[in-house]
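Propose amino acids for all 439 sites.
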């Protein structure tokens, strides 16, 4: 802990105060100010509301606070549809009327781009997410007093909400919750805590279990039996050695990406919803150069298992770069088994440590990048220096998007199109596709 953070942690919280909520911040909290100008970040509050707030925990130069009384509720406040809302850390904005919620999300993206130096359309195109679409979940597991708790963390807490229902989760995954509890209850490998990642593939739910002890023979038999009973193509486990092991493989764990069967590694990153994935692909393809011939090539950075790769390869030659070994292996195998290996080249490369140089990038008519949440700062300077005619940036974080594309603005790029995609319904996260062209 730094000296500054130690001093902040020792600060005494101010007394409760009546404050006015000015706006909702980028993490979904209402933001207000005390009389001395100190910022308060107050979950579950909305712009225009008057609340009595109790500061609880230091947060930067301000305080995380709790709304004890909402004296003047906003007209945009609605009853949250989920009974877990307010405790569960998954959703933070179910209490906001849909129109205002959508406006806020599009403004997050608009402000991020304007801050980087780009003019944005008004209204900004928005693809709305719907309940029951989420096909990936990362559950926390706790064994408390001999009972298994399975769910998501509470707001800003290590405690876990025992979920028995979830409005955003795909019904096929929600249906697994009761039998999963029974399975986990009997596993000796979960002594105090664990986690569970499930990806809903086209071949069924693919499960990766993390435990805090080694699996017994009985555990392995129970996991394999569960997979067989509930149609899981694969069950994998990560234990104390942190290396995934396949416990049961009933059939190939595959999912189709633009018609190509891909076998993702256990716990792989996939787009959160099928509908969101389709919207991302559509926006990326629309951003490709208008004139494409047999020699035109696009560099796809952070390609993952091929979500965009195979869609792009139908219209343009692709050089796909991915750093993670297991993910890259899945991509390469899918390319080799597809009908288009001649249109896709694959390269394993850690773009944070070894970004493509401007010289390498000049061979491409376009660059498509879909970086992780922390963005692609190491790579963006090289892209801007290369003067690649078209850059398509797929982002899940408006803040790092703004930081990264500021380099494109300085290099003379213009924003040609932008699409906001609400894959993460009722959260503060927002997916987007931005197309930049030089000149």
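Proposal:
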């Amino acid at each position: 802990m730094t000296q500054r953070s130690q001093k902040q942690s020792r600060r005494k919280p101010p007394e409760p105060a009546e404050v006015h909520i000015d706006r909702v911040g980028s993490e979904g909290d209402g933001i207000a100010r005390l009389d001395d100008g100190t910022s308060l970040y107050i979950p579950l509050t909305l712009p225009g509301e008057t609340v009595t707030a109790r500061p609880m925990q230091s947060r930067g130069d301000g305080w995380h606070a709790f709304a004890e009384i909402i004296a003047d509720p906003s007209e945009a406040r609605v009853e949250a549809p989920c009974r877990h809302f307010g405790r569960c850390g998954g959703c933070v904005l179910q209490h906001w009327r849909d129109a205002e919620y959508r406006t806020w999300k599009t403004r997050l993206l608009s402000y991020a781009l304007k801050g980087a130096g780009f003019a944005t359309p008004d209204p900004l195109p928005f693809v709305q997410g719907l309940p029951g679409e989420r096909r990936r979940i990362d559950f926390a597991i706790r064994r408390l007093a001999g009972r298994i708790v399975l769910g998501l963390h509470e707001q800003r807490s290590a405690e876990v909400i025992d979920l028995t229902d979830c409005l955003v989760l795909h019904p096929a995954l929600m249906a697994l919750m009761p039998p999963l509890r029974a399975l986990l209850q009997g596993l000796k490998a979960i002594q105090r805590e664990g986690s569970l990642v499930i990806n809903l593939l086209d071949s069924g739910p693919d499960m990766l279990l993390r435990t805090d002890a080694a699996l017994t023979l009985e555990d392995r038999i129970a996991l394999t039996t569960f997979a067989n009973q509930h149609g899981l193509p694969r069950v994998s486990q990560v234990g104390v050695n942190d290396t995934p092991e396949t416990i049961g493989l009933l059939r190939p764990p595959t999912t189709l990406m633009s018609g190509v069967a891909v076998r993702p590694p256990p716990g792989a990153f996939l787009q959160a919803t099928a509908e969101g994935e389709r919207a991302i692909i559509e926006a990326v393809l629309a951003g490709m150069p208008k004139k494409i011939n047999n020699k035109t090539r696009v560099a796809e950075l952070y390609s993952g298992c091929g979500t965009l790769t195979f869609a792009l390869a139908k219209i343009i030659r692709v050089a796909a770069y991915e750093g993670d070994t297991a993910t890259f292996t899945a991509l390469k195998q899918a390319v080799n088994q597809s009908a288009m290996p001649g249109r896709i080249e694959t390269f394993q490369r850690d773009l944070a440590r070894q970004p493509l140089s401007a010289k390498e990038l000049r061979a491409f008519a376009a660059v498509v990048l879909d970086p992780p949440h922390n963005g692609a700062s190491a790579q963006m300077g090289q892209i801007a220096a290369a003067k690649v005619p078209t850059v398509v940036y797929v982002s899940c974080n408006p803040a790092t998007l703004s930081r990264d594309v500021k380099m494109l603005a300085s290099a003379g790029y213009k924003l040609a199109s932008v699409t906001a995609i609400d894959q993460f319904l009722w959260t503060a996260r927002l997916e987007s596709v931005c197309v930049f062209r030089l000149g």
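The longest helix spans residues 98-116. Residues 299 and 367 are 5 Å apart (CA to CA).
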